[in-house]
Hints:
Blueprint: E1 2-8, H1 12-24, E2 30-33, E3 76-79, H2 88-91, H3 93-112, E4 117-119, H4 125-131, E5 134-136, E6 140-143, H5 145-160, E7 165-167, E8 172-178, E9 181-186, E10 190-198, H6 205-214, E11 219-220, E12 224-233, H7 234-244, E13 249-252, E14 259-266, E15 270-276, E16 279-285, E17 296-305, H8 314-329, E18 333-336, H9 337-341, H10 348-352, E19 363-364, H11 373-389, E20 399-407, E21 411-412, E22 425-427, H12 438-453
Parallel strand pairs: 1-2, 1-10, 2-7, 10-22, 18-19
Antiparallel strand pairs: 3-6, 4-6, 5-13, 8-9, 9-10, 11-21, 12-17, 12-20, 13-14, 14-17, 15-16, 18-20
Helix pairs in contact: 1-5, 1-12, 3-5, 3-12
Amino acid sequence: MKYDVIIIGAGPGGIFSAYELTxxxxxxxxxxxxxxxxxxxxxxxIDGDKIKSxxxxxxxxxxxxxxxxxxxxxxxxxxxxxxxxTLYEYIxxxxxxxxxxxxxxxxxxxxxxGTKLYSTAGTKFKKLCIQNDLxxxxxxxxxxxxxxxxIVLENLYTELKDKVTFFFDTPVETVVSIEGxxxxxxxxxxxxxxxxxxxxxxxxxxxMERVCKEMNxxxxxxxxxxxxxxxxxxxxxxxxxxxxxxxxIVYRTQKYGDLVRTFCMNPKGAVVNENTNGIVTVNxxxxxxxxxxxxxxxxxxxxxxxxxxxxxxxxGYGESIARLSNMLGGGVIMQRFGDLIRGRRSxxxxxxxxxxxPTLNATPxxxxxxxxxxxxxxxxxxxxxxxxxxxxxxxDDTLLYGxxxxxxxxxxxxxxxxxxxxxxxxxxxxxxxxxxSLSHASASGVYVARNIIGRA
Length: 456
């Protein structure tokens, strides 16, 4: 069971690495190992009727499987170096952008044609934000939508399935350096390769940490993003979303000087549950098909926390807060903004009197019992700041869902080729702690494939 290249993880990094390898050298023997299901078998049991909340499946179909955690996201590819990771620090800004555009071209050829590419360049909203002490980040945004993103993945799998050997529902237990390459050990068998590409995503953070310890690969602590998902009538943000679709807005709080940012904006989308290592958090989806769209827009408000000595476990900190939310609410908690600022919990009766209809069946409660005061103060301040450019954001009926946590893998020590101290062992995508987005992870996969072939 020997391969030229083994890729661990079938998320965007792994998919685009396999795509580029087979394109540049069709004779290569490539295998992809994925802990989750194949794309057609990825189904979340939550139907909102019989099953209303997470039942902790052995393999979460939202987070694992072909396409990775991005398979059922809203399919936003942000083409920018301003956010989404630090890939450019390793390969240069121009090459990073060129690779992201190359990924965009592939997505267009495999089902994404006709989707819109939005841009913040030259927009009047940049001035409006600055006038209100908000800062709009530059980016081009390709929005596929959850539905078109799925079609693109289907087509990419059809392209790859006869060129690459896929092992689904096959978690890799360990990676061992051997003479001439690497041995990849699974529960029932071991496989060897000359080159190994690890692309396990954020859900593989604990596995990645263990492998780095076993192989003595240096790492350093990363950040964790904590906050809430905001849901409000689509009309409130329509002047922004109609032109920009995704607006990454950053605000520095007056009280603490912390940075609060918008993240993952979903116009006419839906709020959804997300399961990370058994912890239920909140996220958002949106669709290109008008028939699947809702009357609400949702987005995250996040505060990044970095820790210094002696505490290093930023993900553990985020997990503890998410577990507290799960303990109090049985999962995700939702609260009306008006209730939050009045210091009272939301109740089913208060939710029933609201003009807003939630898109997620969550437990009414009190987020002030979950989120640290400093973070919650920053979020409230940010909502009032956004209300100046999008009046209605701070309405009483605006919904806050908590908690939203973005876990980042510890940053793994790699060189300018994204290669570890072990020759032929590469770590890419969000599992590396270097990329934090679909576009950056995909670009890193293409980049490493070209390095392996010798055409970078």
